[in-house]
Write a structure and sequence with these properties.
Keywords: Carbohydrate metabolism, Glycosidase, Hydrolase. By secondary structure, this protein is an alpha+beta fold. Helix content is 32%, strand content 21%.
Length: 600
């Protein structure tokens, strides 16, 4: 059975990622890319769907022991787990070296004290646990083959096969090390090179050490910010610069429910706000690579901007259900692909334009096509900003005039006007100033409830929406505007959980509400960070700091966050780790540091 979502550690090579549980089990790994089929899919099913456990030997009828402690080695993505057993202490170091050839997952067992019996149990299942590969020996190496894929298993330990699983039983004494490596290769090619675990470990540590040195943030929340930045880097697909929302699919927003989606793609919204955080903390190269990815992805057809693309810019992300997988804790269906790709979400135009504006303002080398793209996006919005859409939360119910979408359309026009005013682009300045004023007036007249002194989720609605917290952050209205303060206080009253975290919007329980789905969901962590930001902006800095530090306490022991927090079960839910949670963590830390709103 899979562990709790927060029981997992992330390791990766900037092209794919694995999740390692506290008991030493790798329950999730897609090869060779984030969006490839999983080789280990036990996270969404059971051991029959693929796993790799490495840890102290245990009785067949007993649960595998969990690590006594674990941590990343410094500011890196190298995981160290230690078990204290009656026979001694053992350490396992897990990592994926930045790719130079075949993708590899390397696990090094090291004896610390005593003599500890160990076991490696490797069950490879291709195509998300559906296909049992042909496992055989080739020149002394173990290889699993199925169709176009092959995975090579290398170790100095003696291995044997039993019940369609490859085992190794061995004992380690103090100072002894035994390495295990799996490498992926297209099945029609020659075998991958033999791994060099110790050299790869040294190179991996050096990579992360050098990367972290570029961070320009040195405030009181540096540990949390650095871990979030490393996580965002790990979610970046290095060959193209695309950034996945999360490395997983179908981890539920509600345990046992149907709110299960595939997040292994590049959402323009998520990637744009990630770009903002990277630029504000000194990572210009990643920002440049994302901008180039964006320009390639939308090239030739910006009027049909999608809300998300594949990590190389693919447009077709057809959604399907994997009915042989029971889902995480029986949360079905398990989905791959994402049918929301072709939704109309007008806010995306604002987020993309804001990202391009920030890149321009921070001195990123000029790209003429980026400016041309910005102008084309505004020409599209001229004709479509007043249409209903599916909104930031990708509702699968009827389209509505979502207030946040209109606000972000205003942002797109406003930032483009600023680009023209700077002399770096040409456009119909007066016409677009009038458009900006028209959108602003429309939102304030139709999206604001005067009786309750709050903006609403959509025109004519009485419901609230946490995305309204972004109104002062994007400059639509100043923080001291009574309508802004009223909205913040209304969201606190109506969308807060008992422990003070923020829901995205009211869900409907068993009936289908605004999002067209049954069931509830947890508190959305990004929205809770937005609330902390707003509280700081309106001068309630102590309250903002307390909320921020409560949010930091929700991170797992390795500093990682999923998409949501279930206030009833007191656990993380949703895909993991989630870029859309780590980005606002960074932003709030920067805001609180700038305001001096921190303890100690």
């Amino acid at each position: 059975m899979a562990g709790r979502i927060e029981d997992y550690a992330l390791i990766g090579d900037m092209q794919t990622a694995a999740l390692v549980c506290r008991d030493g089990t790798v329950d999730w790994l897609c090869l060779p890319r984030f969006d490839s089929h999983a080789v280990f899919a036990g996270l969404l099913g059971n051991e029959e769907h693929g796993f790799w456990r490495l840890g102290p030997a245990h009785a067949a009828d007993a649960a595998p022991p969990t690590a006594s402690r674990r941590a990343y080695r410094g500011d890196s993505l190298v995981l160290e787990s230690e078990w204290d057993t009656p026979r001694g202490t053992v350490r396992v170091t897990d990592f994926m070296p930045p790719r130079d050839g075949a993708p590899q997952l390397i696990r090094i067992v090291e004896g610390v004290s005593g003599r500890v019996p160990m076991r490696s149990a490797l069950r490879m299942r291709f195509s998300y646990g559906r296909v049992v590969p042909w496992v055989h020996k080739h020149e002394g190496r173990t290889v699993a083959v199925a169709g176009p894929d092959s995975v090579w298993f290398d170790t100095a330990a003696e291995t044997y096969g039993k019940s369609l699983t490859t085992y190794a039983d061995f004992t380690v004494a103090p100072g002894e090390k035994i390495a295990f490596t799996i490498s992926w290769q297209p099945s029609h090619k020659e075998p991958p090179s033999l791994p060099e675990p110790e050299q790869s470990l040294e190179a991996t540590e050096e990579f992360w050490r050098e990367w972290v040195e570029h961070c320009t943030y040195h405030g009181p929340y540096r540990e949390a910010v650095i871990r979030s930045l490393i996580t965002l880097k790990a979610l970046t697909y290095a060959p193209t610069g695309g950034i996945v929302a999360a490395p997983t699919t179908s981890l539920p927003e509600h345990i046992g429910g149907v709110r299960n989606w595939d997040y292994r793609y590049t959402w323009l919204r998520d990637a744009a706000i990630t770009l903002s955080s990277l630029l504000r903390t000194g990572y210009r190269e990643e920002a440049r690579a994302w901008r180039e990815w964006l320009l390639r992805a939308v090239a030739g057809d910006p009027e049909n901007l999608q809300i998300m693309y594949g990590i190389a810019g693919e447009r077709e992300l057809g959604e399907a259900e994997l009915d042989w997988l029971p889902g995480y804790e029986d949360s079905a269906p398990v989905r791959v692909g994402n049918g929301a790709a072709h939704q109309l979400q007008l806010d995306v135009y604002g987020e993309v334009t804001e990202a391009l504006h920030l890149a321009h303002m921070t001195g990123l080398a000029r790209n003429d096509y980026a400016s041309l793209l910005q102008l084309k996006l505004i020409r599209y919005l001229e004709d479509h900003w007043d249409e209903p859409d599916e909104g930031i939360w990708e509702v699968r119910g009827p389209r509505r005039h979502f207030v946040h979408s209109k606000v972000m359309a205003w942002v797109a026009v406003d930032r483009t006007i600023k680009l023209i005013e700077s002399g770096d682009a040409d456009g119909p300045l007066e016409k677009w100033r009038e458009l900006r004023d028209d959108i602003h007036r429309d939102v304030c007249e139709r999206g604001y409830d005067k009786e309750r002194n709050t903006f609403t989720q959509s025109y004519g609605s009485k419901e609230l929406d946490a995305s309204l917290l972004l109104i002062p952050q994007v400059g639509f209205l100043p923080p001291d505007d009574k309508r802004v303060i009223g909205t913040i206080e209304a969201i606190q009253r109506e969308l807060s959980t008992p422990d003070g975290f923020i829901l995205r919007y009211p869900t409907s329980g068993e009936d289908e509400g605004v999002d067209g789905l049954p069931g509830d969901e947890g508190a959305f962590l990004a929205c809770s960070f937005w609330m902390a930001d707003d509280l700081a902006m309106i001068g309630r800095v102590d309250e903002a700091r307390k909320l921020f530090e409560k949010l930091l306490a929700l991170r797992n022991d390795l500093g990682l966050l999923a998409e949501e927090w279930d206030p009833r079960l007191k656990r993380q839910v949703g895909n993991f780790p989630q870029a859309f949670s780590h980005v606002p963590l960074i932003d709030t830390a920067l805001r609180l540091t700038a305001s001096g709103a921190y303890g100690g």
